[in-house]
Amino acid sequence: MDGVEVEAGMEDVLSLGGEKFTSRLIMGTGGAPSLDVLEQALEESGTEITTVAMRRLDPASRGSVLDVLRRKGIKVLPNTAGCFTAGEAVLTARLAREALETNWVKLEVISDERTLLPDPIETFDAAERLVADGFVVLPYIGDDPALARRLEQAGCAAVMPLGAPIGSGLGIRNPHNIELIVESAGVPVILDAGIGTASDAALAMELGCDAVLLASAVTRAQRPGLMAAAMRHAVTAGRAARIAGRIPMRRYAEASSPALTA
Amino acid sequence: MKVTINGGAVELPGEATVGEAVRTLTAMTSGVAVAVNGEVVSRSAWESTRLSESDLVEVLTAVQGG
């Protein structure tokens, strides 16, 4: 089981875009050295949703990531990676809807190749157009609480703030902003990008995120399958800790054993 | 008739359809989407949509990413 049992017999579920999921770990597929390695990592991760990118069809390529996802019964989430403008992203989303028969899209509009940071202006423009066109829009954004709120108001099904730049493995650079986004969000908050290792994923969930999306941390690990399992446990543990309620931090000790009395 | 398919110049018979353009690359019909001059052509319209000289045809599929 990949969820958390909140009370006996009552399992914690993620409601996203009108559907329910037990796993709170969304996987990307980029960076895997082979489809076999990817398949094993997806299996170990317990994921129920996984992203793919849309690219020109290469007649020479053998085997498809779609076959792997279909075999595993994993929901395909197309992204608009590589797009720099709202127009490109909207066209890519429409092509993905046509090719993959899903109206879900991870909206990703980047500002430059070096940082791959999301462009907030183009992202917001594309989000409005895609929501109007009937898409379930999951936008990748900076850790900006104001933009997150505006995208929610625009009708996005979730917001996906980054922890750090894509593929950087720097973890969550501004946990305070992630907490602010979580505090005011009425849609799921999915921590996307920057995860380097299991403790980063656990922290995202402890901060109150509803799910974590990661790829490189698993696909580029020395042992992708083992890291995928570590991430599955980290997300579950972080979620349980969030629900359980952590103790406040104190400046001085508080004895956990009764005092000695004369 | 000369058109551009995924960035490459391709000579097609006059009156060629979107379906014929796709088949220069693949026999697959599922998991594939087509845009002509920046507009999506749905699969149901592939055989009835005729291309014109210099059309830009993009044939996309899902790959590993994200």
From TrEMBL, chain B:
Pfam families: ThiS (PF02597)
Organism: Planotetraspora phitsanulokensis
Domain of life: Bacteria
Name by which UniProt lists this protein: Thiamine biosynthesis protein ThiS
